[in-house]
């Protein structure tokens, strides 16, 4: 799927001749008068392409929106990776999958979004032939890996809660599933590496531009049946099937955790265990809902343009697509925010990271206060015969001061 495939920016739409058509509709942007102009006058046949150079203030607005999204997504996902890998108590099966998800989200924000946005904003691809292929390959690869990882998490939660006596996944099995996710995503993304290419177009005004587009064996991007079938298959595999699967698993888990009642008395440990599972499931349900909302307009856009190609001639289609593309790509920045908001361990991990970077005001004093609170609780938990054991207190202070994630959720 061509993630930057804004219909009117494809090479063919800039060079198509309308001399054989009785009626045609042309849209271009008049920079002198700051307005879009539509015409069917044959005398204006030299203006057969749509100028996608936005006014400077709108370019600045979109640049700020995309730059903010890229920074938040990249930093947030890298911090999530650091939190899990740097703290042994965080290395659970679910968190390993979250690391896999964060790797995919960080890849799409750093290796794809900035380049595609630049291409969509200026209708020119200055990054070379290889990166045209690689950029689109990375886009589909990372998005596929993200959604398959979400599916893996939902299935793992389903098995853990619905069949608690069944052995849990080990580290090797988890890494094997992650490797299979990336391998499958590479296969799905491979057509982009094969068929994407670059070309230099000569425009009617004498200027040139470089385009990055898919050159399918059976025709151009707007007429290829192979591309249409690929886009539909991609949409089914990476959106509808995962959404259906995750809706089913989390619905069953929700009924189990919130709808059923235990027979007899429950210990406090059992109640805490149920509450912990509920928190994780609620967090993942929010992640899945956000994913569904962010990606739905993107998939709908390509379905609509496949059946109604003239939609791409709409005067404001560039900004409509920029908004749809921003919403889809912004999904990569929401997950770290959700983890920080709904999981106390991740929240403490983010605080620890910003303390280490010196990015929080009064971070040192707050950190000492955090450690002191832990020390006070440790003191209260000691028996009278051990309150004078300075070595015990010193160990408690050291482990808490350097690793806030060691405390319970």
Automatic annotation (TrEMBL):
Q: Which SMART domains match?
A: 7TM_GPCR_Srsx
Q: Does the keyword Amino-acid biosynthesis apply?
A: no
Where it mainly occurs, coarsely classed, is: membrane
- Is Nucleus included in the keywords of this UniProt record? no
Q: Which residues form the G-protein coupled receptors family 1 profile domain?
A: 76-339
The record's listing under CDD domains reads:
7tmA_TACR (cd15390)
Record's protein name: Tachykinin-like peptides receptor 99D isoform X2
Q: Which source organism does the UniProt entry give? A: Bicyclus anynana (Squinting bush brown butterfly)
Q: What's the name of its gene?
A: LOC112043479
């Amino acid at each position: 799927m061509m993630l930057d495939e804004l219909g009117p920016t494809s090479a063919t739409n800039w060079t198509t001749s309308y001399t054989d058509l009785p009626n045609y509709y042309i849209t271009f942007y008049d920079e002198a008068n700051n307005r879009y102009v539509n015409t069917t006058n044959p005398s204006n046949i030299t203006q057969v392409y749509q100028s996608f150079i936005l006014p400077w203030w709108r370019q600045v607005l979109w640049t700020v929106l995309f730059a903010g999204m890229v920074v938040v997504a990249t930093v947030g996902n890298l911090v999530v990776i650091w939190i899990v890998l740097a703290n042994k108590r965080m290395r659970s099966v679910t968190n390993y999958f979250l690391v896999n998800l964060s790797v995919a989200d960080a890849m799409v924000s750093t290796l794809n979004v900035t380049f595609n946005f630049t291409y969509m904003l200026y209708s020119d691809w200055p990054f070379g032939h290889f990166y045209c292929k690689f950029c689109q390959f990375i886009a589909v690869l990372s998005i596929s890996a993200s959604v398959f990882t979400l599916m893996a998490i939902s299935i793992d939660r389903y098995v853990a809660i619905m069949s608690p006596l069944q052995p849990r996944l080990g580290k090797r099995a988890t890494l094997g599933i992650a490797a299979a996710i990336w391998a499958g995503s590479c296969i799905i993304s491979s057509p982009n590496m094969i068929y994407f290419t670059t070309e230099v177009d000569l425009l009617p005004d004498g200027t040139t531009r470089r385009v990055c587009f898919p050159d399918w064996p059976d025709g151009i991007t707007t007429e290829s049946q192979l591309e249409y079938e690929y886009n539909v298959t991609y949409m089914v595999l990476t959106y509808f099937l995962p959404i259906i699967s995750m809706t089913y698993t989390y619905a069953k888990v929700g009924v189990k955790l919130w709808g059923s009642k235990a027979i007899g008395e429950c210990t406090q440990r059992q109640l805490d265990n149920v509450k912990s599972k509920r928190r994780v499931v609620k967090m993942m349900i929010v992640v899945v809902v956000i994913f569904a909302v962010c990606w739905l307009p993107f998939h709908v856009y390509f379905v609509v343009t496949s059946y109604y190609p003239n939609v791409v001639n709409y005067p404001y289609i560039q900004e409509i697509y920029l908004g749809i593309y921003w919403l889809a790509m912004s999904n990569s920045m929401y997950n770290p925010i959700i983890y920080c908001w709904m999981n106390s361990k991740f929240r403490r991990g983010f605080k620890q990271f910003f303390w280490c970077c010196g990015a929080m005001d009064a971070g040192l004093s707050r950190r000492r206060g955090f450690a002191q609170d832990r020390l006070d609780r440790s003191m209260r938990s000691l028996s009278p015969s051990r309150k004078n054991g300075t070595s015990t207190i010193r160990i408690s202070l050291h482990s808490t001061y350097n690793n806030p994630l060691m405390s319970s959720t």
